[in-house]
Amino acid sequence: MSEKLDQLKTILAEVTDLNRATAVLSWDQETYMPPGGVTARSEQLSTLSRLAHIRSTADEVGRLLSELEEETAALPFDSLEASVVRVTRRDYDNDRKLSPELISEIARAGSTGQPVWQKARREADFKLFAPALEKNVELNRRIADALGYKDRPYDALIDRYEPGMTTDELETIFAELKKAIVPLVADVARNADAVDVRVLYRGFEPAAQVKYALDVVTKLGYDLERGRQDISTHPFSTTFGPGDARITTRVSRDFFNECLFGSIHEAGHAMYSQGHGDDIDHTALWGGASPGVHESQSRLWENLVGRSRGFWKHFFPSLRSAFPEPLRDIDDEAFFKAVNKSYPSLIRVEADEVTYNLHIMLRFELENELLEDKLKVRDLPEAWNTRMKSYLGINVPNDREGVLQDVHWSYVSFGIFPGYTIGNLIGAQLMEKIRAAIPDLDAQIERGEFVALLRWLRKNVHVHGRKFTPNELLERATGKPLTPAPWIAYVREKYGALYGVKPVPR
Amino acid sequence: MSEKLDQLKTILAEVTDLNRATAVLSWDQETYMPPGGVTARSEQLSTLSRLAHIRSTADEVGRLLSELEEETAALPFDSLEASVVRVTRRDYDNDRKLSPELISEIARAGSTGQPVWQKARREADFKLFAPALEKNVELNRRIADALGYKDRPYDALIDRYEPGMTTDELETIFAELKKAIVPLVADVARNADAVDVRVLYRGFEPAAQVKYALDVVTKLGYDLERGRQDISTHPFSTTFGPGDARITTRVSRDFFNECLFGSIHEAGHAMYSQGHGDDIDHTALWGGASPGVHESQSRLWENLVGRSRGFWKHFFPSLRSAFPEPLRDIDDEAFFKAVNKSYPSLIRVEADEVTYNLHIMLRFELENELLEDKLKVRDLPEAWNTRMKSYLGINVPNDREGVLQDVHWSYVSFGIFPGYTIGNLIGAQLMEKIRAAIPDLDAQIERGEFVALLRWLRKNVHVHGRKFTPNELLERATGKPLTPAPWIAYVREKYGALYGVKPVPR
Predict the structure, then answer these.
(1) Where do the structural domains in chain A lie, given as residue ranges?
(2) Residue A408 CB burial class (10 angstroms; 0-12, 13-18, ≥19)
(3) Distance from C-alpha of B351 to C-alpha of A318, rounded to nearest angstrom
(4) Which residues are CB-contacts of A131 (< 8 A; sequence separation ≥ 6)?
(5) Mean pLDDT of the region B241-270
(6) Is the pLDDT of residue B432 over 80?
(7) Residue B175 confidence (pLDDT)
(8) Averaged over A433-444, what is the pLDDT?
């Protein structure tokens, strides 16, 4: 067996190197590349992806997998060998099901769709974008058909990103969320004055913000020997191997949250990458279990840690030393409250913890209805606006701040959005378990100690990479599959207290 | 034909993309990569190089070339089609002559030899490095045998880097240089006091130096829409395509020359890359004609422009505005003299214009003698030290500042050094022709106008890429093959005047 496994690993290592080279080129494109580099860069990226795809879908891989499946059948589910074979098989089958023609049609639709979407958004005119979206809906249907599904076409799409997750399961979860959050949002909105947010807009020197943010994330456990922070238009994290997981941030003088919470969020992703086991390097197991599990790590650090009272008890004194003028008359409690302001807003990426999942639910519902032809593309803006009113109680003034706000629908990618909510829920579900394992967690955070927390995450999440599906991982770490209960309890308690809202019994 | 040429171009485009991706990864390694990234990065680089090598040496390429050679036989030598076929053939034959086993032996010898050399240099003990160098000499001989040569093994090695150049030709050139420079060096050394260099060490604020250098190179014509400047330990220039040719620089508070002249030098390389014709993109013609021709562009801008009197008449006022304190009692003439200080020194990379080529001649002679077994590796330090005394009149205090100073011999790469001298000579030879074509060049430089100069270089050098060999290019641009006469005349006149030495008749 070991010889065949070595052959498979040789191929996977080459694919890994090509994918990591692609990641370096993309990082450079977002951080330092001069404007003139665009054309050649897209050619390089397309060549590298093509070579990686050819290699990872070669007949040889299929042959090796069939032989190895027999030979690993008796091994424990979580053994390295059985897991490499199982996860490589999942990737291989998914990749082989999409024909090269369909893949290039998808790529073409994306690259033509994006400028069309940009123009439509600029002019706040959905009609300009509608034909491209119709094409994308059709392509999403063809992807679902090619991948195959039992009940609903969305099952095939969501399974690409969140293996093992089903549409029905998500619908149940969103129904519970909706029942809990919609009334909470309304309660919070009625007591909006309880939190004063003005301090965040007093002006914070940008270079000092970037330095402070980097200082905070290294204190959380982000290893700069194996990472670095740069500036980009949209913050992201990326990794080129076990020793190189980078983050970017952006900074605004006029709004404090962007830089610090952006950095903590991305460092949460990067610490996940820095925690993968050495034994899974160069195999299909290296990487995050799913976008949702990845988001659980970024959100856990950003919100459950970075927006906690203990965190600000520890960090506020050093923050005030760095920014004495804007913080002159503020204490840690006031600052803790300010960074936790909740209010219904139009734009997903600016939404707070309470309202965020409603933005996702809206998109999940609409993607499903489009896919199942229960909603026509031309009726999408109206459906969007109606639901924004119903879930968040706000009126959408135009398509730019409504249905056209996200880039995702300009390329062919239904099924990505739920990962954001899954991440929020997983983060809270893990945290419930962590609190049981580390009873004095809050006191540790208040002392600026994050080692035990990071060690727990390493052991139960990071080290496994892609070995387990999200639900397999959750079962092992918390004893339960994905459930929204811990997250609902968390926001009810936290925001109930912040806004003086009596917790609503479930 | 067009169909076959298209097939060849498709392969070359893929090779181009892989090589450009390699260049991006190397740039990142030298500029921003965290320490932990080393291992994974070398794996990525090795995979990309291997894939590029496999693709460019495929039998299919040989078959297409044979067919295309017949079909392009009647086309003009400098037509795009004939040139693509001719230059691809040259690369293909060279690449195919080295067996995969020899290539990996070379790679291994390089990666094991470099740390050995580092240790030997640190301890200033050549004996530690001698066994690795013996292996490298043997591998250089095997490369020469594999590539083939008529008269001397070095012919095969130099032809890899400077196509068409021969050992005999270089020996003739170095003999002329030696006859002219050795006495000039001695004359200048006797009048060393004529130039006061102390201003360069007065302390210049590093960030302001970097900013000033970038400002200067953009005024020379380096296009920042298609380039950028970063910091690295060793300055270099690299390019990832027609729209992205980058430079790096380094900066020292205590020595002015490093940053500005480093930036101008690298911008000279990068402007060459920025000037390649669009028609040769993605073919074997894209890139510099040879390391020597590349060096001619960097040296021309660094020395013939950047160290000219007119240049400092134009730039000194803005330099003094940027650094009023260290330049308080200095005028442009004194500064011009200071940056042109000449003195015999131990280290090649710090050598001035006059002495630099003697450092190269020394290495060229020693590489030849080692290769032809006229010199034993164990006797190399003595041979080095004797010649340093004879050519430059100085005593070498230890191996670190002598035979161990350059990284080149730690990997298998005899034949690279002459390119530095060839570059100096080509620069002067081109400049002689440019002065005839642009009679008021000095006045233009004094006014800060570099457009006509850059346009001439674009038209006669840059646009052609690798279409012509160095001598073919020189014949076309200047009517003559490589000759040291213009360079000798230039240094005699310039340094004769600077040091009050009467020009010696040839």
Answers:
(1) 2-155
(2) middle
(3) 50
(4) none
(5) 97
(6) yes
(7) 97
(8) 98
User: How distant is the Cα of A46 from the closest Cα of chain B, in angstroms?
Assistant: 9
Give me the active site residues of B, please.
Answer: 266
Q: What is the pLDDT of residues A8-56, one digit of tens each?
A: 999 999 999 999 999 999 999 999 999 999 999 999 999 999 999 999 9
pLDDT band at A504 (very low <50, low <70, confident <90, very high): low
Number of H helices, E strands in chain B: 20, 3
Q: What digits encode the pLDDT tens for the residues A155-192?
A: 999 999 999 999 999 999 999 999 999 999 999 999 99
Interface of B with A (CB under 8 A): 13-14, 17-18, 20-21, 24-25, 27-28, 32-41, 43-44, 47-48, 51, 223-228, 230, 240-244, 246, 282
Strand, coil or helix: A237: strand
Q: What's the token pair of residue A402?
A: 């409504």
> How confident is the prediction for chain A on average, in pLDDT?
95
Nearest CA among B17, B402, B357, B339 for reference residue B182: B357
Q: Do A36 and B240 touch (CB under 8 A)?
A: no
Determine the Cα–Cα distance for residues A236 and A290; give it in Å rounded to an integer: 16
**pLDDT at residue B274 in the model:** 98
Q: Exposed/middle/buried for B76, CB within 10 Å: 0-12, 13-18, 19+?
A: exposed
Across the strands, what pairs with A229?
A247
- Pick from B47, B225, B226: CB nearest A14: B47
pLDDT value at position B506? 46
Residue A422 clears pLDDT 80, i.e. is over it:
yes
Residues of chain A with C-beta less than 8 angstroms from the C-beta of B225: 34-36
CB spacing of B34 vs A240 below 8 angstroms: no
pLDDT of residue A412: 85
Q: How far is A53 from chain B (nearest CA, A)?
A: 14
Residues of B whose CB is below 8 A from A20? 40, 44
Average pLDDT, stretch B333-353? 95
> For residue B116, with 0-12 CB atoms within 10 Å meaning exposed, 13-18 middle and 19 or more buried, which class applies?
middle
Long-range contacts of B381-390 (CB under 8 A, 24+ apart): B381/B126, B387/B362, B388/B346, B388/B362
Residues with Cβ within 8 Å of residue B449, at least 6 apart in sequence: none
Second CATH level (architecture) for the domain B197-341+419-456:
Orthogonal Bundle (1.10)
Optimal mutation site among A43, A55, A222, A281, interface B, most CBs of chain B within 10 A: A43
Residues 6+ apart with CB under 8 A from B115: none
pLDDT tens profile A307-319: 999 999 999 999 9
CB contact under 8 A, B40 and A13: no
Joined together, the tokens standing for residue A288 give 């995050």
Q: The sheet that has B245-249: what strands, in order across it?
A: B229-231, B245-249, B237-239
Residue-level pLDDT at A506: 46
